[in-house]
Amino acid sequence: MHESITPALSPGDATESSSKQALCKRLVMAKTQLDRLERDGASKDLTALSAARIEFALASRALADELMAQESPNEHTAS
Length: 79
Description:
Elements: H1 11-39, H2 46-78
């Protein structure tokens, strides 16, 4: 029988994971909203479409920034 060994999470790890989950959820919600507005050809609400595009861009950037911040310390220790 194999036992699964899961490393203990420090409080910082739990916060980091929660933050990443929130950013992922924000990105998914932004993409869903943007897709819905883009599919609705009858919609003439260009303000809503523009706002959805901006939110998607901001959510993408926030998640990318978080991922880059997590990778930066690893790059320095691997060198």
